[in-house]
Specification:
Structural class: alpha+beta
Low-confidence stretches: none
Number of strands: 12
Distance between the termini: 56 Å
Oligomer: single chain
Helix content: 40-55%
Number of helices: 14
Order of helices and strands: EEHHEEEHEEEEHEHHEHHHHHHHEH
Shape: elongated
Mean pLDDT: 92
CATH topology of the largest domain: Trigger factor, domain 2
Strand content: 15-25%
Radius of gyration: 37 Å
């Protein structure tokens, strides 16, 4: 077998040719046919006793094609690996160099493959390179908003004697005919209503300040502005009967419940941060500010990584690619791709490719590696963030450890955590090798960083 390699003048592509001689495939084909003979069930012959000539006539071409394809595939990828060719995508049958293959008549075959080559990378970072690192300003408004969330989260319900807008009332609703209950009219026990959800201001006003055990006369059809769903749910009737509700009803208030925010006291401090973690309002506010800073830190890291990506892509502006080959490969790599979709997405794909190539170059050249403890640190960071999303800031060590171990047992999750750890390690390396310009930014500015 002869293998030749020719690179284009712009070094973006190459053609590999493999010349297969009869001596390369004769023995494997012969062995394949003998294996077929041992298991073939051919009428008129005992199993495994059919003449080899008959087997060759029946299966010779199939065996030839299979063995030649094995030789081509194995030797092609061995050559790429041994020659350390940095290719993009996969080898593609050449559209210009491939000669016609005739397995019926030829004994010698030539296969040609187009390869898209990775550009040579000579990019380094140094202290002349400036990269901003933004920290979000944790102002009093953010701290107060978070404390308000805690006070609401750990508040409690209590019974009261008169109605305010956000109170919940329970009672009996009776349809009226004049001042008296309507005969066979709508009646609902244990109905509930909150003034804040009444749409009509005049009807809402009838409930404001009403006393426990008093009766309010109102029109639910008017109160909910004819909303079938809301009226049906309030009166516990089918939507088909909603039109009947366009009249006055009495609401006897049997219970008024008000949700009250938790006091800013030691009880709240212990519930939020753990018993005895802080002993004063000042310490609580300080800890909340610190917690917010820690929770928001990943956004600063994400912005820094985004800026690194943009920097490296910009440094790769002069990279050249075999665009036609890459588009051909993308079309074959995913059956859902179309020429139109690839054309639309190609600029983004190339940017992703540039960043990936440079990052991998720097990682390999500077031996940036992750250890097991780096993956565990990533798992801990992700676990804490997930608990924080549900307002759980104090997680017992054993619960956190068990949660992390469950994460690490899942192959896909472990792969994601490893990539996160490598990303963090690469970012830390970049920080050491560029000039980092530390800047403050508001929450609104951070929103623009990621949404513009």
């Amino acid at each position: 077998m002869n293998i030749s390699f020719a690179k284009s003048d712009d070094a973006t592509r190459s053609v590999i040719k493999l010349e297969i001689e009869k001596t390369d495939y004769a023995a494997p084909v012969e062995k394949s046919l003998r294996d077929i003979r041992r298991t073939a069930n051919i009428p008129g012959f005992r199993k495994g006793m059919a003449p080899i000539g008959m087997i060759k006539r029946m299966y010779g071409k199939i065996a030839l094609v299979e063995e030649v394809n094995k030789l081509v595939s194995g030797n092609l990828f061995n050559y790429i690996r041994e020659e350390k060719l940095n290719i993009l995508g996969e080898p593609l049958p050449s559209e210009t160099e491939q000669k016609e293959i005739n397995f019926d008549a030829d004994e010698r075959f030539e296969f040609a493959f187009d390869l898209a080559l990775s550009p040579e990378i000579h990019i380094e970072l140094n202290k002349k390179t400036k990269v901003p690192y933004y920290s979000m300003i944790i102002d009093d408004e953010m701290v107060n908003k978070q404390i308000g969330y805690y006070r609401s989260e750990f508040g409690s319900f209590k019974s009261v004697d008169d109605v305010e807008e956000k109170d919940l009332m329970k009672g009996t609703v009776v349809q009226l005919a004049g001042d008296l209950p309507k005969e066979e009219g709508i009646r609902t026990e244990e109905a509930t209503i909150m003034p804040m959800y009444i749409k009509d201001e005049e009807e809402k006003a009838k409930f404001m300040g009403a006393a426990l055990n008093s009766t309010v006369v109102f029109n639910p059809y008017k109160a909910y502005e004819g909303s079938e769903a809301e009226i049906a749910a309030f009166l516990n009737i089918d939507k088909e009967r909603v039109a009947e509700a366009n009249s006055d009803f009495s609401f006897e208030i049997n219970e008024i419940t008000r949700y009250t925010e938790a006091e800013l006291d030691q009880t709240l401090f212990d519930k939020v941060l753990g018993e005895g973690a802080v002993a004063s309002e000042e310490e609580f506010i300080s800890t909340v500010r610190k917690t917010l800073t820690e929770q928001i830190a990943p956004q600063s890291d994400s912005k820094f990584q985004k800026d690194i990506r943009e920097l490296l892509i910009k440094k790769a502006d002069k990279f050249s690619f075999a665009d036609d080959l890459l588009k051909r490969w993308l079309l074959t790599a995913n059956e859902e791709n179309t020429p139109e979709s690839i054309e639309d997405e190609y600029p983004r794909i190339i940017d992703d490719l540039k960043y990936h190539l440079i990052r991998e170059h720097l990682i390999v050249k500077h031996e940036i590696k992750i250890e097991n403890e780096d993956v565990i640190a990533s798992a801990k960071k992700v676990a804490k963030a997930q608990f924080a999303q549900y307002g759980i800031n104090v997680v017992p060590d054993n619960l956190l450890e068990n949660y992390m171990q469950d994460m690490l047992k899942k192959e896909d999750t472990l792969r994601s955590l490893s990539e996160l750890a490598l990303t963090d390690k690469f970012s830390a390396w970049v920080k050491e090798h560029v000039k980092v310009e530390y800047k403050d930014a508001t929450a609104d500015e951070f929103d623009k960083f990621f949404n513009d």
